[in-house]
Amino acid sequence: MPFAAITYDIKPGYEKELAAVFGDFKRVRSSRVEGASGEQAGTILATAVFLRDDTLVRVIEYTGDLEAVARHMASQPGVREVERKLKPYLSRPRDTDTVEGFVATFKRSLLNTVAQISVRDLPAPA
């Protein structure tokens, strides 16, 4: 299962406030990601958020098409609420008020995958 990591440039010194923003996160309605025609385009399996100094990173474990995952996230009320609550703490504004803006920001914020290793990728024991 692939992972994606996106960064947020934030103002340092707000660790407690940022932890509260993500602590109140409302899960997505469904982990099922639909494509443009309503077909299943992927699944969001897990997310995690990491913070240090002026960098916040959201890691997403998913299956399927990453752009469809980004579009799905853009339409979720909990994700939109987090993006709204993060605005005062951002050192670089993010255009996430529309689906198109969210997807473009997601792509710009995406870290390059250098390596991914999982026990799920090992062959089954004989």
Automatic annotation (TrEMBL):
Residues in SchA/CurD-like domain copies: 1-119
Stored InterPro entries: SchA_CurD-like
Tree of life domain: Bacteria
Name under which the protein is recorded: SchA/CurD-like domain-containing protein
Source organism (scientific name): Streptomyces roseicoloratus
